[in-house]
Specification:
Elements (H helix, E strand, L loop, with lengths): L1 E5 L6 E7 L9 H12 L7 H4 L4 E5 L1 E2 L2 E2 L4 E6 L7 H4 L6 H7 L12 H8 L5 H7 L3 H18 L3 E9 L2 E2 L6 H6 L11 H16 L6 E8 L15 H10 L4 E6 L17 E4 L3 E4 L7 E2 L2 E2 L4 E7 L9 E4 L6 E4 L9 H23 L5 H17 L1
Antiparallel strand pairs: 1-2, 2-6, 3-6, 4-5, 7-8, 7-9, 9-15, 10-15, 11-12, 13-14, 16-17
Helix pairs in contact: 1-7, 1-11, 5-6, 7-11, 10-11
The structure holds flavin mononucleotide.
The site of flavin mononucleotide has 21 residues, from α11.
Keywords: Amino-acid biosynthesis, Aromatic amino acid biosynthesis, FAD, Flavoprotein, FMN, Lyase, NADP
Catalytic activity: 5-O-(1-carboxyvinyl)-3-phosphoshikimate = chorismate + phosphate
Cofactor: FMNH2
């Protein structure tokens, strides 16, 4: 399974082509759109989210509600494009229009791709960089993840995500999975504890008032992944490594860990390895899940626990020093419009990025021309964990 995304932030649309999805999988576009809406929500987001109402249209690969096994194309129309036709359209623009619209951006924002992207691709108008480097692209990745999750749900593999920390305020109690499941999407900051939710809202409000932004930590949990997905035999087949790459490729994500993550640096080995137990109905299992479901780059049958760290959004109302690329003069970088905290939304992006990596690894592991073929092999693998 693989995909390509295209589209600029203020262009006509985002497009995704996904190849390798098994045939005969039931797909309902409303399930994809549910994920899309979730990505747009969350406390602390700016005006753009009120302008755009992301909705996916499926234009290939699905017929009468079922996948054909051919490439699936999804498009997300940017409603805002009507206002950007001249600036972002494919047609040449007259010099007069250019002047009228003050089209050229020469002031790079610290923390964004603007300056280095301009140098690298020889753009003197930094809009040519920021349009594609924008986190708008994550909408396309959520669409891919939503298709992945529909597939994985058929195999009894389910996803849960939450926010663990924003701006230093933590909801990092080690809740059991049932508590997390019961509290998913309960509030607009996506934390389990409602009192902490209010503290976080207050923190976001004060950051906004100060013209600043805040980041945080998000967590995705995957339940039901059979043992032995991924491999220890080669670096690029280790599933934890592939998930890490996926998460850090999301805009503003600067770190990833599994299970107890960086706490492993402080604890003795006896408190970090998970003891192996056996039960005649469930087979091999672990007495704990400190390692977050991975040993040797392979799933060990315990829930997969992925943590991702998001930096504070770089576009600030509080201006930072930067340099104009034409005049080389110093200026204070100001903003167009921006979120003050996108951590709740980003937790949805992480969940969907993890879903794609897991779907991809499963489809590499098992023959999967059609969904029933895949299902029967997954059943066999689950049996192996009992019979081995
Ligand atoms: C869901 C989401 C929303 C984001 N919204 C904004 C935003 O409104 N303003 C902003 O400056 N950066 C935003 N970012 C982060 C930037 O896209 C990102 O920091 C930038 O592209 C530079 O990439 P880097 O931080 O990975 O180096 C967002 C990121 C995500 C995941």
């Amino acid at each position: 399974m693989r995909y390509l995304t295209s589209g600029e932030s203020h262009g006509p649309q985002l497009t995704v082509i996904i190849e390798g999805v098994p045939a005969n999988l039931e797909i309902n576009v409303s399930d994809i759109n549910e994920e899309m809406f979730k990505r747009q929500g969350g406390y602390g987001r700016g005006r753009r989210m009120q302008i755009e109402k992301d909705a996916v249209e499926i234009v290939s690969g699905v017929r009468n509600g079922y996948t054909l096994g051919s490439p699936i194309t999804l498009i997300v129309t940017n409603d805002d494009f009507t206002h950007w036709k001249k600036i972002m359209g494919a047609d040449p623009i007259s010099e007069e229009d250019q002047d009228n619209m003050k089209r050229v951006i020469t002031k790079p924002r610290p923390g964004h791709a603007d300056l280095i992207g301009g140098m690298k691709y020889n753009h003197r108008d930094l809009r040519n960089v920021l349009e594609r480097s924008s986190a708008r692209e994550t909408a396309a990745r959520v669409a891919v993840g939503a298709v992945s999750k529909i597939l994985l749900k058929q195999l009894d593999i389910n996803f849960y995500s939450r926010v663990v920390e924003i701006g230093g305020i933590k909801d990092d109690t080690e809740y059991d999975l049932e508590t997390i499941k019961a509290n998913i999407d309960k509030n607009d900051v996506r934390v389990v504890n409602d009192e902490i939710a209010q503290e976080i809202r207050d923190k976001i409000d004060s950051a906004k008032k100060a013209g600043d932004t805040i980041g945080g930590v998000v967590q995705t949990i995957v339940e039901g992944l059979p043992v032995g997905i991924g491999s220890y035999v080669h670096y690029d087949r280790k599933l934890d490594g592939r998930i890490a790459q996926g998460v850090v490729s999301i805009n503003a994500f600067k770190g990833v860990s599994f299970g107890e993550g960086f706490k492993a640096a402080e604890k003795p080995g006896s408190e970090i390895q998970d003891e192996i137990l056996y039960d005649t109905t469930k087979g091999y299992y672990r007495g704990s899940n400190h390692l977050g479901g991975f040993e040797g780059g392979m799933s060990n049958g315990m829930p997969i626990v992925v943590n991702g760290v998001m930096k504070p959004i770089p576009t600030l109302y509080k201006p930072l020093n930067s340099v104009d690329i034409n005049t080389k003069e110093s200026f204070k970088a100001s903003i167009e419009r921006s979120d003050s905290c996108a951590v709740p939304a980003a937790s949805v992006v992480v969940e969907n990025v993890v879903a794609f990596e897991i779907a991809k690894a499963l489809l590499e592991e098992f023959q999967s021309n059609h969904i029933d073929q895949l299902k029967s092999q997954i059943d066999e693998r689950r049996l192996l964990n009992i019979e081995y």
